[in-house]
Task: structure prediction
Amino acid sequence: MQQFNDMTILAIETSCDETSAAVVCDGKILSNFVSSQTKLHAEYGGVVPELAAREHLRNLIPVVKSALREAGISMDQFDAVAATQGPGLPNALLVGFKAAQAVAFALRKPFVGINHHEAHLYSPWINEFEKFQPNISLIVSGGHTMLVLVESELKHRVLGSTIDDAAGECFDKTGKMMGLNYPAGPEIDRLAEQGNPSAFDFPRPLINDASDDFSFSGLKTSVRYFIRDNPALLDDAQKICDLCASVQAAIVEVLVKKTIRAAKRNNVRCVTASGGVTCNSALRGELARVCEHEGFTLRLAERSFCTDNAAMIGVLAERKSFRQVSLPPLDDEIKPGWVLV
Ligand code: KG4
Ligand code: ZN
Result:
């Protein structure tokens, strides 16, 4: 099969509420343009799938044009097109995936459909794949929380996932209970800096469970009952900061403890983390502290590659081509429930 190294790839990502396009060439990101819809959905307290799809339709062409302009290339200069094929919101995925297929078809270029979770999984290596080493990877985002054993590049196995809510969902929903805007994760992170993480004691679900699975819905419920029983707390700015710090501490402790335990069990010396929640300062700080203490190499995705972006889609498409993974047929369909295995 054709290899894309030294070739230029146009990549598109529209799986949820970011419309993104990137141009990747020979391992380098020439542009990575992201148009976020968070303000649009904030009013509803979460992503409204139909609105997300309509917004992608409105934004996609300007975003692709911006990515091409920033990269300094025109439509006829790229050699392949990549797009997120799944998992994600069906109507949102359709917009980017079908547009990418149409461009590939019209320009007679190869097309690569990419698994969104797999793109997050390899995002800590963007710009430095030559440094790759076997690792335990924590993918932690608004829609997913999983631990993956990555034995070699593109050879991986999911060890465990959340059995209910994702960690980002827990940040967003507990934040909503505190009156914070969607997505609440970044705001909790900011407020927690002024708070006491030991002020309130919340459960650490499945922390000592033998599996590599996670569960965050019980933590969310206990925050709901705590606020119901202490409503005056939300009138006190310091107490809100304490609440943010305490909820964040519970989430981070579970994520870090289970990640490190998985790394030890599987005899790898490297830990990686990706996905939107990896922007969280407490998670980054605690992973760094524990990895240093335990002698693990830590690779965190850069913040700009943690939340959804097309650069990670283009980079993975390039790596797949480099490793000669076969391409999907050009008339392939979206895969909204495509699980990483
Ligand atoms: O990867 P992403 O952009 O979208 C999904 O694929 O889900 O992740 C979005 C999630 C949201 O739940 C958001 O609240 C969370 O990442 N997030 C954070 C922070 N920044 C984003 N959570 C905690 N602290 C942050 N600084
Ligand atoms: Zn994502």
Observations:
- Residues 80 and 108 are 9 Å apart (CA to CA).
- The longest strand covers residues 28-36.
